[in-house]
Design a protein that fits this description.
HMG_CoA_synthase_prok; HMG_CoA_synth_N; Hydroxymethylglutaryl-CoA synthase; alpha+beta; 3-stranded mixed β-sheet; Peroxisomal Thiolase, Chain A, domain 1; 388 residues; transferase; HMG_CoA_synt_C_dom; 9-stranded mixed β-sheet
Length: 388
């Protein structure tokens, strides 16, 4: 039995800011953003979207009625939760009209949350092969205007369906994890924007990757030569490149070239979307599958990292039935329909926030199926426009 990712889908709002425009507005050389951090565009999330609506917009693309009836759990990885108590997953269950006889759990460990869900889903389906699990990574990355982290913002959601006989990526059993109490990135309950020690965060990220990759090789006996591609959590794409370069000397010249080519394929979409937090690794995986040239059976190594800190290295094999054409078409449509906003417009959208009292939001500018309509009696009001 092969358990793994059977379906995968992505959603982000259709508004974005061009980082060349932002660099000029901030009186910075654009290459600092385009080359220095490896980003060219950044999703701008309107107030009518949150972690729940973005997850619903992503998940609705992949669930059939058969999938719905087979679901055993919804595991929702996010660090952008909408309630200190109530799970984002139960909101999602309601919006998608999923069966009531399923577990709905929200998972949090910075950007690692979706990977925790994926690993739990794999174990659950292995024990219950007739069941499927919906795994979500949905977040809004916020650091503030005119801050060092401004160009590593973004937002969006990735939804994955985990099942037996997976048609995209069969997850292998061996994985290695590492955790450590580190203050490289955090967001106190009273803050809307994250706090980050950028230099420390980069160093810990690379240290965690090299540590778990080394432990993985000791555990399995495999080496870098056994991988056709390595995919990374990409809060900004240059970070993944730095991590890859840390282990490239372990490979021969031809393998180094192929791994670098695969990495370039894996960051095409992340460069244009920005930081997804929990979804970043899986957007990178989608980018690799759509833009790379990997044959069936290719072994892909995946590095997941969540500040604070948790890291995991695991692997999967590309299944023979996977066809990248649908993935390519979805992203071509997404990028083709996006709307570029000016820097002043981006700043206005960024500064919009839900008040602490009842409000009705104007959703006319939001083209998504699922939107946040407002707040009534301290309760978020969501809308599925297909039922309006």
């Amino acid at each position: 039995m092969t358990v793994g990712i059977d379906k995968i889908a992505f959603f982000a709002p259709d508004t974005y800011v061009d980082l060349t425009d932002l660099a000029q507005a901030r009186d910075v050389d654009p290459n600092k953003y385009l080359i220095g951090i490896g980003q060219s565009e950044q999703t701008v999330v309107p107030v009518t979207q949150d972690a729940v609506t973005m997850a619903a917009n992503a998940a609705s693309k992949l669930l059939t009625e058969t999938d719905r009836q087979a679901l055993g759990m919804v595991l929702f990885g996010t660090e952008s939760g909408v309630d200190h108590s109530k799970s984002a997953a139960v909101y999602l269950r309601s919006l998608l009209d999923l069966p009531a006889s399923i577990r709905t759990v929200e998972l949090k460990h910075a950007c690692y949350g979706a990977t925790a869900g994926l690993m739990m889903a794999k174990d659950y389906v292995t024990l219950h092969p007739e069941k499927k699990v919906l795994v979500i990574g949905s977040d809004i990355a916020r650091y503030g205007l005119n801050t060092p982290g401004e160009v590593t913002q973004g937002g969006g959601a990735v939804a994955m369906l985990v099942s037996q006989n997976a048609r995209i990526l069969a997850l292998e059993d061996d994985s290695v994890v590492k955790s450590e109490d580190a203050m490289d990135f955090w967001r106190p309950l009273y803050r809307k924007e994250a706090l980050v020690d950028g230099h420390a965060s980069e160093n810990i990220y690379i240290d965690f990757f090299t540590a778990v990759f080394d432990d993985y090789q000791k555990l399995t006996g495999r080496t870098i030569e056994d991988f056709d591609a390595l995919a990374f959590h990409l809060p900004f794409t240059k970070m993944g490149l730095k991590a890859l370069r840390a282990v490239l000397p372990q490979a021969n010249d031809l393998k180094q070239q192929r791994l670098l080519e695969a990495f370039e394929a894996s960051r095409v979409y992340n460069r244009r979307v920005g930081n997804l937090y929990t979804g970043s690794l899986y957007l990178s995986l989608m980018s690799l599958l759509a833009n790379g040239e990997l044959p069936a059976g290719s072994r892909i190594g995946l590095f997941s990292y969540g500040s604070g800190a948790e890291g995991e290295f695991f692997a999967g094999q590309l299944m023979p039935d996977f066809d990248p054409q649908a993935l390519q078409a979805d992203f071509a449509q997404f990028f083709g329909q996006r709307r570029r906003v000016s820097v002043p417009a981006y700043e206005r959208l960024f500064n919009q926030s839900l008040p602490d009292h009842d409000v009705l939001l104007d959703t006319k500018a939001d083209s998504a199926r699922f939107v946040l309509r407002g707040i009534t009696h301290d309760q978020r009001q969501y809308q599925d426009r297909t039922k309006a």
